[in-house]
Design goal:
single chain, 335 residues, mainly alpha, two-stranded antiparallel sheet, 14 helices
Length: 335
């Protein structure tokens, strides 16, 4: 036997008690993780903190939505409003009435065309201005941002009054400027004599109010585009359009999808611009789904039909939200 065998003592392993706080487990079993104070037992804390906000949303949005659905399935007019008669169940009569009315489909198509034009114009102008702001000096960029925020913060009623003055037939600045061009006589031209021209003016008003938000958001997104990728694309022979298409656009896609969805929701729900521009009485060729629902409910006093039109509009908007969620999930899967 060697000296090493005789002098080296073998110490048996120390057995730890299962109740010890070392966190080690028994052989073959994983040890228990120490509590961090954030995980276990605190799953209800986020819901507790969100409870006040959820309660406010339930009261502000939940009750009106439930009331809207209820009215859309009832026969509800002035006698029911004043309590002279009880509300009667109408089933799907209100929906059959509006879906079988050619005027409703004309208004719906006009709303879709108006929304598509406003959204496309808003996104294109917003992208062009955001790209332009990346090329100008700092003081010019600051000045433009101040102007954008000022126009964005202007009340809708004030902006509508300004546009009414700009496009006025007798004293409008736009008619005066256009008449200064050779061979052009726009003095006394009424932009609201026809529906397409009048809606084009209202569309410009909507775009003017929506562009600042798009520009500011896209400008923030452009700061996240790596300059190395743009420079590498240029070294590979890509021009300005190639860099934008293959580098900038894919990085900005989540922001563009979000802005487009929000613009569709906002522009489809346009009401004060049309209502105020037409002095509270929009003609038939100026009617959109929002004003059409308002007229049916509060002018004709057919609250059931007006609620049905509003509910169809909500369903259309929910379809837009569903498309947005699908696109965002696809983007998340790719990333």
């Amino acid at each position: 036997m060697s000296a090493a065998d005789t002098t080296t003592a073998k110490v048996p392993p120390v057995r730890q008690s299962p109740s010890s706080g070392s966190g080690a487990g028994t052989p073959g079993r994983p040890g228990k993780k120490p509590s961090t104070g954030v995980g276990g037992g605190g799953g209800g804390i986020p819901w507790l903190l969100l409870a006040p906000c959820l309660l406010v949303l339930l009261l502000v949005l939940g009750y009106p939505l439930v009331r809207l659905v209820t009215l859309s399935f009832q026969k509800f007019g002035q006698p029911q409003l004043w309590g002279f008669q009880e509300a009667e169940s109408a089933g799907f009569e209100n929906f059959s009435k509006i879906l079988g009315d050619t005027e409703f489909w004309t208004v719906a198509l006009r709303t879709v065309i108006f929304t598509a034009g406003a959204v496309i114009l808003t996104m294109v102008l917003g992208m062009l201005i955001a790209l332009l702001l990346q090329k100008v000096s700092g003081w010019v960029k600051a000045l433009v941002n101040i102007v954008l925020v000022a126009s964005w913060g202007m009340p809708i009623i004030v902006a509508t009054a300004i546009f009414k003055w700009l496009f006025d037939a007798d004293y409008g600045v736009l008619n005066w400027l256009l008449s200064r061009l050779p061979g052009v006589d726009m003095i006394g031209h009424n932009w609201f004599a026809s529906g397409p021209q009048g809606l084009a003016v209202i569309m410009l008003l909507v775009v003017w109010g929506a562009v600042p938000f798009v520009v500011i958001t896209l400008s923030a997104g452009l700061t996240q585009v790596p300059k190395e990728l743009e420079e590498a694309a240029r070294l590979d022979g890509a021009g300005a359009w190639g860099v934008f298409r293959f580098v900038t656009l894919p990085i900005l896609k989540p922001i563009i999808v979000m802005l487009t969805t929000l613009s569709v929701i906002w522009d489809m729900g346009v009401f004060p611009q049309v209502y105020v521009m037409r002095n509270g009485h929009p003609e038939a060729e100026f009617q959109l789904l929002t004003t059409y629902s308002f007229d049916r409910a509060f002018v004709v006093n057919d609250y059931g039909t007006g609620s049905a039109i509003a509910l169809v509009t909500v369903v259309l908007l929910l379809g837009v939200v569903a498309v947005y969620m699908r696109q965002m999930l696809k983007i998340g899967d790719v990333e």
